[in-house]
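Reader question, answered in our methods column.
A reader sent in the components of a multi-part assembly and asked whether the whole thing could be modeled at once rather than chain by chain. We filled in our standard form and ran it. Here is what they sent:
COMPLEX SIZE: two components
ENTRIES:
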Amino acid sequence: MSAQIISGKDIAADIRSELSGEVAKLVAETGVTPGLATVLVGENPASQMYVGMKNKAAAAMGIYSRQITLPIDTSQDELLGVVAGLNADPAIHGILVQLPVPDHIDEGLVIESIDPLKDVDGFHPMSVGRLATDSGEFFAPCTPAGVVEMLVRSGHDPAGKHVVVVGRSNIVGRPLASLLIRKAPGGNATVTVCHSRTPDLGAVTRTADILVVAMGRPEMVTADMVTPGTVVIDVGTNRVDDPDSEKGYRVCGDVLFDEVEKIAGAISPVPGGVGPMTITMLLSNTVKSARLATAR
Amino acid sequence: MSAQIISGKDIAADIRSELSGEVAKLVAETGVTPGLATVLVGENPASQMYVGMKNKAAAAMGIYSRQITLPIDTSQDELLGVVAGLNADPAIHGILVQLPVPDHIDEGLVIESIDPLKDVDGFHPMSVGRLATDSGEFFAPCTPAGVVEMLVRSGHDPAGKHVVVVGRSNIVGRPLASLLIRKAPGGNATVTVCHSRTPDLGAVTRTADILVVAMGRPEMVTADMVTPGTVVIDVGTNRVDDPDSEKGYRVCGDVLFDEVEKIAGAISPVPGGVGPMTITMLLSNTVKSARLATAR
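And here is the structure of the entire assembly that came back:
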């Protein structure tokens, strides 16, 4: 028996359709169009692609999107000035500075310069702290929020389940643990975080009801590390050499899909899994921010 | 064979003696005396006792301590004004507003009004977020920081171990998980957080190399929930009725000590365990804050 496939692509399409409706309703009722500003320093091709995808997706659902591209030699003060302008701009409800920034700019300083009320990426320490203490208004980081949405909408509510998170990054593993632990919808799970310093990873992953892998190591989770019936979410997106492919590479996750798919209860593919959810949650945060702004 | 007793009282005494030396050195080298301000609103007897203990301990090691007691009908604005004054006062390096505050005052607002650079309690969302992302200068909350110190100083470094944390409070469980997960001394553990919504608590606690219990339920962890050899830290402090005692009550932890002590590899008692560590870490944070201030 094959696993249920958790299609992030399909779930993201559902959410985007709901969001389009919300945007139309917000515009009709308040006259306010949600606004997202993306700031890109330099010409990194991957960053250009990501930013382009974000703006295109925003525009497609009626969100006003402003793309600001700055030269690679932009000074830290110039970048902070741009962010300050966006903080003060009432047309902008979400600010995203595409990471990484060039080495001569202090990334932490730039993140902390964004108004937490417009921090739709959820990387500001105030956002992280409010998520971790479940207090005040905050935006959850997009990838972990997307993972939780995928679980809930595919019928695998984490409440009361044992979720094993592999990876402890600030972008996925740690904030995901915060979301899953809290006393709130999508939370109430028993959560284990394991990582590169865990002596026997398989012994831990085999105890999971739900296994989320975010290590950035191609196809590291093999079938012997997964108990039959487990729900598996694969956050990894890796390029590996593939001489048989036209491009010379293929994209794969952190889970050896062909093997694990045979025994898992449910599994998300790569591509078409977590990837489309991340941008969708960014748009969701932007709409939420606009709604909160109209209520203030 | 009985368990090794992890005496928080003894470890706290060692740290306080080290801190006294640090304070003397700081005064001699920079002329700066670390300063701690405690703010208490109202006359709650338990709060009065805690604040008194903190000030006494601070004074005993040469820390300047200022105790500010405000009437129960102090307005929120008045309290915020007191905190603003302490934020601006160069003689004060640590500010502690004793919780809980009266109902007519917004606790979150008061916590967020404290300068994160003086937030020696570690409850400000900026402190929580910086701890959770391991970025910038921050103070770790005192009780979880005390638990980590107890483990390391008693020879049970959490690195590479499976630590099960029972309880998900903002004061203990969640920040403790942040400390134990991070790539830093006292961290690098595999961490599981379980809580009231975990269906079979014993099944999880039995998988621990190190078990930290912070549920606030008297003697809930019994011997059958602990695998022989486990290191057990008991964060609970509960009063239970005891007609045989002169006071009519006795103080106990969240662990049934007499039973678990027979099979654990090591165990911290209540009282004399985590309790004395909490105040000690507050003093440690205050001294650290003064040292950082002289370097700015």
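What stands out: Chain A touches chain B at residues 108, 124-130, 132-136, 159-160, 162, 168, 170, 174-175, 177-178, 181-183, 188-195, 197-199, 204, 207 (CB under 8 Å). Residues 8-30 of chain A form the longest helix (23 residues).
Send us your own complexes using the same form.
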